Amino acid sequence: MLEINGLNIEFQDVQPPLRVVEDLSLSMGPGEIVGVVGESGSGKTMTALALMGLLKQKARITSGSMLFEGRDLCALSPGEWENLRGKEISMIFQEPMTSLDPVMKIGKQMEESLRLHTDLDGKARKQKALQMMAQVGLPRPEEVYRSYPHQLSGGMRQRVMIGAALIGDPRLMVADEPTTALDVTIQAQILSLLKRMNREYGTAILFISHDLRVIRSICSRVLVMYQGRVVETGPVEEVLRAPQAEYTKRLIAAIPDRKDRLRGRKEQIWRD
Question: What is the DSSP letter of 44?
């Protein structure tokens, strides 16, 4: 379904140009959940933005190819991107509060993809938006439909983003650190929701994170990125059990075990 080969991305507003993604290759099949993990600045988000045709003007794809169901994404015109984005490829951004329009009600934002890519009238769009809200676990859909983003909790806003990304029935969804700003309880709920949506809709997910524990809970395969390059790739359990790259080993070593987490909680309680 998705084939990325030898992708190179550079910032060309500096001299010499700064390469932020180097020779990246990735393949995904229909309905697969693949993870991309690495620290900030490793090139994860730049890869996601390139895949969505959303690179800023200063960032350019200098070589390589991105094929989505046989179509060369690098060769699409702005109009072709508008027809594809939201309908066949969608994205969940890291921070919904900055991604949602603060002065537009949730219902209208949820319906945007339907307005652009379907012939549904206003009544049918609203009905589908309400159905999607219920499917992603939003309570009182009618009330949420009439609300503004600031009136919802962080977890509810993230569910809105997931619903908006799924409402057009895309073949591929790019999730750029969708649980980073959430507490662990809401994070677990969102991960469970994404897995359920993946099963029910068959949507493939490219899941981007800096947290190997999150990657392990949702992905079948993982790419480990460091300074713009893929340093290791393979099935998640295999990479975690027998990492080959030194950087992957350091990432795994940085994961606190259960005893460390319990000790930290006890120390915090003692200080409080």
Answer: H
Q: 215-224 burial, b if ≥16 CB within 10 A, otherwise e?
A: bbbbbebbbb
Alpha helices per DSSP H over the chain? 44-51, 78-84, 96-99, 106-110, 112-117, 122-135, 141-145, 154-166, 184-201, 212-218, 236-241, 246-253, 258-271
Strands 18-28 and 2-11: antiparallel
Q: Are strands 172-176 and 89-92 parallel, antiparallel or unpaired?
A: parallel
Query: 209 with 42: CB under 8 angstroms?
Result: no
Question: Which tens digits make up the pLDDT trace of 121-179?
Answer: 999 999 999 998 998 888 999 999 999 999 998 888 988 988 888 888 899 999 988 87
- The Cα 91–Cα 230 span in angstroms is 22
Rounded to two decimals, what is the model's pTM?
Answer: 0.86
